[in-house]
């Protein structure tokens, strides 16, 4: 269990949404945290994609073809269709 302290403005906004929607404060805070973490993961994924693209642009000859990657993973094209 994690206890957090919210600013009075944030707490009031959560209480207002709770009353307007009939949802519990706990449910609303959990949903907000889940969305934050999903956004954080998306940001990290995007940063990694930019890094990989930059690496490719520096040396495209090092890139692997799709079939090579699948082969390294023990897969075939039919496995991903």
Topology, element by element:
Blueprint (H helix, E strand, L loop, with lengths): L7 H14 L3 H34 L7 H7 L4 H4 L1
Give a nutshell description of this structure.
This protein is an all-alpha fold and 81 residues long.
Please provide a written account of the structure.
The chain is mainly α. It has a domain at 28-80. 73% of the residues lie in helices and 0% in strands. The chain contains four helices and no strands. It has helices spanning 8-21, 25-58, 66-72, 77-80. It is elongated and about 55 Å long. It starts with 7 loop residues before the first helix and ends with a helix. The mean pLDDT is 95.
- Number of contiguous helices: 4
Shape: elongated
Order of helices and strands: HHHH
Count of DSSP strands? 0
Distance between the termini: 42 Å
Average the pLDDT over all residues and give the rounded result: 95
* Helical/strand content category: mainly alpha
Q: pLDDT under 50 segments (min length 5)?
A: none
């Amino acid at each position: 269990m994690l206890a957090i302290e919210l600013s009075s403005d944030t707490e009031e906004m959560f209480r207002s949404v709770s009353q307007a929607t009939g949802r519990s404060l706990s449910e609303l805070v959990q949903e907000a945290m889940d969305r934050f973490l999903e956004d954080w993961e998306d940001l990290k994924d995007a940063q990694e994609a930019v890094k990989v693209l930059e690496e490719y642009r520096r040396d495209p000859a090092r890139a692997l073809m799709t079939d090579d990657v699948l082969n390294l993973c023990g897969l075939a094209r039919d496995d991903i269709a």
